[in-house]
Specification:
Blueprint: E1 6-10, H1 15-25, E2 29-32, H2 40-43, E3 48-53, H3 60-63, E4 72-76, E5 80-81, E6 101-107, E7 117-119, H4 125-128, E8 130-133, E9 138-139, E10 145-148, E11 153-160, E12 164-173, H5 177-185, H6 202-218, E13 224-227, E14 235-238, E15 244-248, H7 258-268, H8 275-278, H9 292-318, E16 322-327, E17 348-352, H10 356-363, E18 370-379, H11 390-407, E19 412-417, H12 419-422, H13 426-446, E20 455-461, E21 473-475, E22 478-479, H14 484-494, E23 498-504, H15 505-511, E24 519-524, H16 539-550, E25 554-559, E26 563-566, E27 569-571, H17 574-577, E28 579-581, E29 621-623, E30 626-628, E31 648-650, E32 656-661, E33 664-672, E34 675-680, H18 687-700, E35 717-722, E36 727-732, E37 738-744, E38 748-754, E39 759-763
Parallel strand pairs: 1-2, 1-19, 2-3, 3-13, 13-16, 16-17, 17-18, 18-19, 20-23, 20-24, 24-25, 25-34
Antiparallel strand pairs: 4-12, 5-12, 6-11, 7-12, 8-9, 8-12, 10-11, 14-15, 21-22, 26-27, 28-31, 29-30, 32-33, 33-34, 35-36, 36-39, 37-38
Length: 764
């Protein structure tokens, strides 16, 4: 059994079993979990000691005396309809129907969890709040509304009959959202509610630093301080029913205070409106195109956070300890993919690993000495309960993460939660034993470096590098139901034999496309920051990409790429993709589908006997002006293109149509000058779909002749090559045994039989 590179969670009164599992899993480090402490017997095991530290919570003795210095958030009330004033019995005969006046009451806390949030009245609501007529978009003058503080209600008078009104109000966050989540999930009844602290407030900031210094002095045995995280929680707001109401892992809504708003105005020369934070109820979701105030506020918060992170890291080093940042909880403002992160001096970043995409979100971070992944499942009672088998999730999580580790390795692994729960499940204990040993063996054979990539792929969206591997998701490995079609592309790329970077639309217009990029991938739902929305009206953007593809580049469009209704087109790069979308504006113009093409490089893995087609092209059938191909679509034979993008059609007969269903294009290619455009309606992750995307990329880059080298004949198995250490490996990405042949240059095909979740190594 190997040893090391593994961090074990521990808890009180569990020393003997902790010692046993530490030996079994090869742990060289031990950490405490949220709400637990390490016994002296555990500390004496001779392992490296990690200790979680919460800079902005867990100090209720201070917080209770300074409740005006908690972080705050702008909240948007529910919409309230202004109806006829009941005192007039609905008789408005003396007023025109469109000008009827009434009064409306808005009980703004009605939908929020009062144990988490409390209206903040100490700062004048007339200055810091905002009432909006949501029918007209008008901001209501302050003289037309007032606050009934006893009832947490805003009264608007006069109001327009049958208009909807909202109030955007400041609320103090009086219960730390993550601690609250753990409290609810684990049924804690004896834990005092943790009140968060706002580092922007000078007195509280001094307290935070003083308390941290005291903690460092009092814990000399700690080797690594796992700062969890720093100061501002991602947007996590609960409803009156104690359910999640607003969740955005990238959101910075919970960073507000009157003093910060005033400080921003002094620094930037203009004042943020409440509407700048709630954005019509969207709360500046990463899916929305960011506004200038939003980006300025993020920069303002980042400056505050990073200055204080750097101070705490220096204190940690002066105490002879390592500083590790947890990429989660209060991570807002640290921004690990924005220039300057490396200047903070952090030793490490640790984060939760949900799949390959979230593994890459951690492992691709630069400017730290090492990265660590916390694998799933958490040792929590929602998973570790009678009748459940946590080993199933453990193996599934490992298979997804392993693909990405082979491309961009993390330095260490571990788990989180309560060890006493995990110890009750022997099958899970055995699974972790195997996974930990395999991770160490993998690290040794690769030298801690990623496998070589054959192509350079750039993912293009509004956010670019700032949100590397952070697209389409709610949180770690949780795409929205509406975005699984797009998230699968990132998941496929995370473990593919390609090099991946993220670029923004601004990057393209200001600098063009770097020469070393082989393929650009872009797209998502229309109007989102990932698809681009209004940016596609910029001639500089579309002409730059057209020129690049025309001169030999390759552009893959996903879902609704370059989508904005402009100048008679919906996809502004329809000429590149060969595909546009009908949005009921040109229904009178007939669209014709060419025959589906079989025997194409991209679809070479599609079994011929599953197409219901003879060799060669298939003759189409005509259905009243629109032509549909007759063979079964690829989606009918195991390929998943996600949620349908209705109305997509080839713009002319030159398009190579590879899959279509029910009058919509699923997959098509288009020669564009010396380059290639590819349209793909969506691609949820699966082994088969990942193989399809890989073929798309090699074809688009016109590197088909390089595809077979080290390629697995079984799409459920993937290969990785490490020239520096002289190893090649083949992995089975399923929970069933698999067999495959791998074409090794100079050696011919190598046959490999792999057990469930298996891995095979061979010297090259």
């Amino acid at each position: 059994m190997s040893y090391g590179l593994f961090t074990l969670p521990a808890e009180e009164n569990f020393a003997a079993k902790t010692r046993e599992l530490a030996q079994l899993w090869g742990a060289d480090a031990i950490r405490n979990s949220d709400g637990t402490h390490l016994d002296e017997e555990v500390k004496a095991l001779g392992k490296k000691i990690y200790s979680a530290y919460f800079p902005a919570r867990g100090h209720n003795e201070w917080a209770r005396l300074h409740m005006d210095e908690t972080p705050m958030v702008y909240l948007l009330s529910q919409r309230v309809l202004a109806e006829d004033d009941p005192t007039t019995n609905g008789n408005q005969s003396d007023t025109s129907p469109n000008g009827a006046k009434t009064r409306v009451e808005i009980p703004f806390m009605k939908t929020f969890f009062e144990e988490q949030l409390q209206p903040y009245y100490d700062a004048d609501p007339a200055r810091y709040w905002e009432v909006t007529d949501r029918t007209t978009g008008e901001t209501i003058p302050t003289e037309r509304w007032h606050v009934d503080r006893e009832r947490d209600t805003v009264i608007v008078e006069p109001a327009e009959c049958f208009h909807e009104y909202t109030v955007t109000f400041l609320a103090s966050i009086i219960w730390d959202p993550v601690e609250m989540y753990n409290h609810i999930t684990n049924n804690w009844s004896d834990h005092e509610h943790a009140v968060p602290l706002d580092v922007y407030q000078p007195d509280t900031r001094d307290f935070i630093m003083h308390a941290y210094q005291e903690w460092l002095d009092a814990n000399p045995e700690v080797d690594v301080v796992r700062l969890t995280t720093f100061f501002y929680q991602f947007t996590l707001i609960f409803s009156a029913q104690r359910r999640e109401k607003i969740v955005d892992w990238f959101g910075c809504a919970c960073t507000v205070s009157p003093s910060a708003l005033d400080g921003f105005e002094r620094e930037y020369g203009y004042r943020m409106r409440p509407e700048d934070f709630v954005s019509e109820g969207g709360y500046n979701s990463t899916f929305r195109q960011p506004t200038r105030p939003q980006l300025d506020w993020l920069g303002f918060v980042m400056h505050t956070v990073r200055a204080n992170v750097k101070r705490m890291v220096s204190m940690t080093h002066e105490a002879g300890k390592e500083a590790m940042m947890f990429l989660g909880d209060q991570w807002i403002g640290t921004e690990p993919y924005v220039d300057g992160f490396e200047d903070l001096g952090l030793d490490a970043v640790v984060g939760s690993v949900g799949d390959g995409t979230t593994l890459r979100m951690i492992s691709d971070i630069k400017g730290v000495r090492y990265t660590e992944g916390r694998f799933l499942p958490y040792f929590f009672p929602d998973t570790f309960h009678e009748g459940n088998d946590p080993s199933i999730e453990a193996w599934s999580n490992w298979r997804k993460a392993r693909r990405a580790i082979l491309r961009s390795p993390i330095s260490r692994m571990g788990y989180g939660g309560y060890l006493s729960l995990a110890a009750k499940f022997p099958k899970f204990v055995d699974a972790v034993t195997e996974i930990a040993d395999e991770f160490r063996d993998l690290t040794a054979k690769t030298g801690g470096e990623g496998a070589q990539g054959s192509l350079n792929i750039a993912v293009l969206n509004t956010w670019g590098r700032m949100r590397s591997w952070m697209a389409y998701t709610v949180a770690h490995a949780k795409p929205y139901p509406q975005t699984y079609s797009y998230y699968g592309v990132l998941e496929s790329l995370s473990g593919m034999r390609v090099n991946v970077r993220f670029i923004s639309f601004d990057d393209v217009t200001s600098r063009g496309i770097d020469d070393e990029i082989d393929v650009v991938v872009t797209g998502g739902a229309a109007g989102t920051s990932f698809s681009g929305g209004e940016v596609w009206k910029d001639p500089a953007l579309v002409s730059t990409l057209r020129r690049w593809v025309r001169n030999g580049g390759a552009l893959v469009g996903l879902g609704e790429p370059s989508a904005v209704n402009w100048q008679g087109r919906f996809f502004q790069l329809a000429d590149v993709f060969g595909v546009d979308r009908e949005i009921s504006q040109t229904l009178s113009v007939d669209k014709y589908f060419p025959a589906l093409t079989r025997g194409h490089f991209i679809t070479a893995d599609v079994p011929a006997n599953e197409t219901n087609a003879e060799d060669g092209d298939i003759e189409p059938e005509d259905f009243g002006g629109t032509v549909y191909a007759t063979p079964r679509a690829m989606s009918d034979i195991g390929y998943d293109f996600g949620e349908p993008i209705t109305g997509t059609y080839p713009i002319d007969g030159n398009v190579t149509l590879l899959s279509a269903a029910e009058g919509r294009v699923q997959l098509a290619t288009n020669r564009y000058g010396s380059g290639v455009g590819v349209y793909l309606s969506g691609l949820p992750y699966s082994g088969r779909n990942a193989r399809l995307l890989e073929r798309i990329l090699f074809y688009a880059a016109r590197r088909e002749d390089e595809y077979e080298a080290y390629s697995s004949t079984n799409p459920q198995c993937e290969t990785a090559v490490f020239p520096k250490t002289g190893w090649m490996c083949v992995i089975n990405n399923t929970n069933q045994p698999q067999s495959t042949d791998v074409k090794v240059p100079g050696q011919g095909p190598v046959h490999v039989d792999l057990g469930t979740s298996g891995i095979f190594w061979r010297k090259i």
